[in-house]
Amino acid sequence: MFSKDEQRSLFELSKQLLYSPQADLFAESPAERVEDLRRVLRYHEWRYYVQNDPVLSDFEYDQLYKQLETLEAAHPQLIVPDSPTQRVGKDLTENAAQVSHLTPMLSLDNSYNAEDLSDFDESVKKLCGLDKDSDIAYCVEPKYDGGTIALVYENDRLTRAATRGNGYVGDEITANIRTLRTVPLQAAFSQKGIAKVELRGEALIRKDIFEKINKARQELGEQVFANPRNAATGGLRMKDPREAAERGLEAFLYQLGYAVDADGNDVMSRFQTHDESIHLLESLSFKTPLAKGGTQQHLPATKTCRNIAEVIQFCNDWQEYRDEYPYELDGMVVKVNSLELQEKCGYTSHHPRWAIAFKFKARQATTRLRDVEFQVGKTGAITPVAKLEPVPLAGVTVSNVSMHNEEFIRSKDIRIGDQVLVERAGDVIPYIVKSLPELRNGTEQEVVYPKHCPVCQSELVKPEDEAIWRCENAECEAQVLARMVFHTSKHAMDVEGLGESTIEKFYKLGWLHSIADLYRIDYEAVAKLEGFGPKSAANMRAAVEKAKKNPIQRLLHSLSVHHLGQKASKLLAAEVEHVLDLRNWDLEKYQTIKDVGPVLARNVFNFFQNPHNIELLETMERLGVNLRQTDEDKKADVNTDGPLYGKSILFTGTLTQMTREEAEKRAAAAGASIASGVSKHLSILVVGEKAGSKLKKAQDLGTVEIWNEMEFLERISSSEA
Ligand code: IVH
């Protein structure tokens, strides 16, 4: 951990390194400069990854990182293995070596309710020779559901990392663990007289990051991970540390397993309690159960309870709260706080007698697979959907579950009629863990993957490098509908009031045949429809009229060309004056655009070679949809390289250096979006004189960065120079 004073001075130093004139910086020797950069980078990594509370923008952090990289490239003799740039090594962890843990990594006994916990408390008291009515203090922590790891630090350096393995011997995974920015490469244990130490913890992937990884994998037709734990344990074992680094793994350390001094004497006795040892880890910059779990956290992640009644209350509170926690948990761990009492309790060969896991209520259930339906997506991807006998699972009734692709069904040998195990973990979408072949009675049927589109009957194809079968008929009704729904969605043309159910309704009425028809809706007819009326018809019309004026990057994205996302649409839009210019592009021309690969190039090329699509766009233009790149759009283009890119900003109070309009213009030029009010989505509030309620609200939220006018000018200066 960094003291307030240290933090202040490291922050000042960061600013100096970022913003002082070059000449001042050459006053330092390269060795000094390199050391300064490492100190500030370690600090910012800790703020960002461990505290979840960065004080620099990503852009500024990158600038500091690049400075260090440049200096190290110029002075390779200054590179040390603990430098923040050296996290991703080039050594492969192929065929991981096996290593023995310094002390065995045991498991935990389980409890499921208040009674179990009271029984545990009673047995602890017995083992410690304490009176039945006495109070024992317990530490209660999240039981993280990821991959268990053991880290060894010798002479303040991370020297070894391993998986739990069988508890005695695990796989060596040092190169991969080094890529985790939550794991300090050096930590000053020597200050406490510790020469060698083994720490236990868990490597995890945040739930929202997990969802993103899976979505990307699904889009690429790769196998998706069943849950964050699988993605995490797989990430730990990646052969190439660069790939491990991309999984977004974080490590929480929750146990000091072994500690000796320079003479090899046990120094665990220097600690009196478990929470003291965790506070030591926290002070050495590790991420521990003491870390804030996320901005919306109401409960602390860990609590030292005075007695078992408090433990029970805390565990029950967490049972309710678990879904809001950004990481997957499968329960809480209750540990006797006093290390002296822990010793009195001792161990079985399987688990410590001083700790117990409190398992949250199951989110798994078995049910029967009634049937499999095949759905057609907007680009023709066929997704098998399991139709289950409805089953309650962690608060919702589950009856439809995606099974991703053919390989998913084959590899799990799932048959119609099977009893299947379904799991719903947190916010994660429910999925089928496995089938239960032992419960078969012989009437189960294999899932027959269709050869033809279930909606339009065209023959399905499976591109060689993909896992997904597709319907290639762009006129397929299912695709047409899915494309319309995507076309009006928020990230595409953003037409409010024209969502899935309305589109389906209009489609059934025969009003819509292609996306062009969305621009010739008969609003008078809408006004007469049940559930609509004149007001909603007028709103719909206004939303459609607004969408017609959208910049062409939105239009390109809205066309559902496979792999053409927001970013590539923007790059493409910047290259043309009119969308139909793309008719004349050949394949090579697409590939001259940075970030456009051969697959995307071919998809866009094919799209614009198809006369149906050209006709569609021409019709849309006739109906008033903008196909032309306007100067305004070019100007309004977000500056993705700007120092405020990705941030939303709001000005309040009286500005003294510039008008509000000017400030907003300059913020937008630096890449920021201008917010309309203070909310949890706001990144930065710039405060002028006599600021009032907005400032108060931002302070209360605690998630908004608050700058004065000068700070704002300083931050944007790099992009305006
Ligand atoms: S302490 C000697 N604390 O759960 C006691 N374990 O099911 C060691 N786990 O093997 C365990 N969160 O891998 C402890 N806060 C936590 C934990 C935790 C997750 C894992 C650990 C253990 C497994 C038992």
What does this entry show, briefly?
With 721 residues, the chain is an alpha+beta fold.
Estimate the strand proportion. Answer: 15-25%
Secondary structure: helix percent: 25-40%
Compute the number of structural domains: 5
Structural class call reads alpha+beta
Task: For the largest sheet, list the strands in their spatial order.
Answer: 2-11-10-3-9
Q: What would CATH call the homologous superfamily of the largest domain?
A: DNA ligase/mRNA capping enzyme
* Arithmetic mean pLDDT: 88
CATH class of the largest domain: Alpha Beta
Low-confidence stretches: none
Shape: globular
The CATH topology annotation of the largest domain reads as D-amino Acid Aminotransferase, Chain A, domain 1
The helix tally amounts to 26
**Ligand catalogue:** 2-(butylsulfanyl)adenosine
Topology, number of strands:
24
CATH architecture of the largest domain: 2-Layer Sandwich
Give descriptors for this structure.
721 residues, alpha+beta, Helix Hairpins, D-amino Acid Aminotransferase, Chain A, domain 1, OB fold (Dihydrolipoamide Acetyltransferase, E2P), 5 domains, 5-stranded mixed β-sheet, 5-stranded antiparallel β-sheet, binds 2-(butylsulfanyl)adenosine
Q: How would you characterize the overall build of this protein?
A:
The structure is a single chain. With 721 residues, this protein is of the alpha+beta class. The protein folds into five domains: 4-86, Helix hairpin bin (Helix Hairpins); 98-359, DNA ligase/mRNA capping enzyme (D-amino Acid Aminotransferase, Chain A, domain 1); 364-450, OB fold (Dihydrolipoamide Acetyltransferase, E2P); 477-634, 5' to 3' exonuclease, C-terminal subdomain (DNA polymerase, domain 1), CATH 1.10.150; 648-720, BRCT domain (Rossmann fold), CATH 3.40.50. Helix content is 37%, strand content 18%. A hairpin with an 8-residue loop joins strand 19 and strand 20 (470-471). The mean pLDDT is 88. The site of 2-(butylsulfanyl)adenosine has 15 residues, from strand 3, strand 8 and strand 11. 2-(butylsulfanyl)adenosine is lined by residues 106-108, 141, 143-144, 148, 202, 254-255, 289, 333, 352, 355, 357.
